[in-house]
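name: query_chain
kind: protein
chains: 1
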Amino acid sequence: MKREKNTLFHMFLNSCEKYKEKIAFVYKIAEKEFEVTYQKLFDDVLLLSRELRAKKITKNSKVMFVCDNRYGWIVTDLAIVSIGAISIPRGSDTPMSELEFIMNHSKCEFLILENEHIYEVYEEMIKKLSLKSIFILEAENIHTFFDNTYSYNDLLKDKKIYKNDIEEFKEFKDNLNEDDTFTLIYTSGTTGTPKGVILTHKNIMYNVREMPYIIALKNDDIWLSILPSWHIFERAVEYMSISQGCRTIYSTIKTFANDLEEYKPTIVATVPRLWESMYTKINSKLKKENPRKARIFNKLVSISAKYNHNLRVLKDELPVFEKRGIFSTFMVKTIACMKLIFLYLPNKLAKKKLKAVQEKFGGRLRLAISGGGSLPDFLDIWIDAVGIRIVNAYGMTECAPAIAGRALNCNTFSTLGLATKDTELIIVDESGNKLQNGKVGEILIKGEQITPGYYDNDEENKKSFTKDGYFKTGDLGKLTIRNELVITGRSKEVIVLASGENVDPSRIESTISKLPFITDAILVGQDKKGLGMLVVPDLEELKEYVSKKFNKVVNNVENIFADKKISNEIKKEMNKLLNYKNGFKRFEKLQNIHLLENEFKVGEELTNTMKKKRHVIEKKYKEIIDRFLK
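structure:
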């Protein structure tokens, strides 16, 4: 493919021609299922593109697009791409103040909304803006002569495709090149004000071109889509699926479990938090239904995990940060071999029994991709033990999104695998000096997928790139001797205690989340004498824990927290996990905890990929933090 044709629209046209009779998307409306072929996708995108152009959307027009997962999302997105306009996508749960900031900062001219309800939510803010036109996907015919608001029903009254439409539509490819901006994605911001990430066709096409090889993607693969479509991870997955003629099933968190069994996907793309939720639900459900079966299940998982670990010792598939001596290696492998012999029959039984879990995922799942952040070790081990091949991937919006991944080209467990093709990845110290493998420092990267910069934000651009062009990820990590990446934390999130000790909150939070009565937790303690934890409990599990441990009935979080004996025991349970054996230091124990009554919500305390907005949470609970960490 010539470089000047390296755009999303060229890819779309090629796929629609090559796979026109194949099913591209499947979705449901009110329990009724709809299947869309690549030919139908082509027609739908052409028709919408024609009407949006008629309403004066042109190349480089900025289009704010507020919508959640649905077939109309991908049609609208590709129609905007075909014109060469710049989409600025967001989910329907975006807070009004954040949306207003994004629309003003990006100087957007057009607005597309999912439905009338969303229009009503944002109506007051929308009226303050000078927009050329507003479009609503799901609404009755609403346009009047005196306003600039149109429903898709208004736009698409004429669904006939005329002779010249197809050629005219295809010719738009000649107006596009790989350096054109195709989207501006404003990060939800775990650390502050949203920043507009500029992504070009070159950035996204790197992912579309290179990623299929490392997951051996084929045109008979079936994706189950659950992540927000506007997020770059999900977008890249959908584009990649189109590029290879795959089928994508639109699912929801509510229907995800049923859709896994019904559609039997071969690949799913998720984020670590969804795996944490699944882990908790499966274990809690088993424990409530039959405690004996739960113990047996956990024992089977433990046997499978131990067998897998020792097999990896034998096959050199565990991270190594410095060369070992021949004798030391021989001894380690001999012990592993003896353990494998001992575990052989129990493991055979365990693997057979654990196939029932795989059936819950449809029975055909060959890969589960977890992106957006590194999976906690305990989850990585658990998923692997139940027999699911997990691709532990690392990416950022700024990289559209791929940086590294433990895909089919790498079997080194407990790592994020190798950097993606032609990506330069180095680890540096605070002075910017390159560190040797095994040493922890900030991860810097160079590559075709990396953003040209942040929109209208010189200050961030200066901070985010080195003089020699490396992008500063803000993440801390180290490389194995084979150059596989291990994330150790985030430089901006490291808590510095009053004593000067540095603490990575993510390790402690993921370890604590193993406890069944914890839904979520956030570590606090910046500039304090010790560490504290804000805990979102699973109230039912916590009631059961209190009942068994103290023979006491409690009704709410307030009752539990009022009893110091109970809260101290909960803290004690947490600190048991934060021991030296698990790699924690003396100062990484919890000084105090506080139970929260409300869960963290997406759009408020959580980003759309369910990462915690630490600055928001710390500000919201500042009084509590100051009080319980004096």
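note: The two ends are 63 Å apart (CA to CA).
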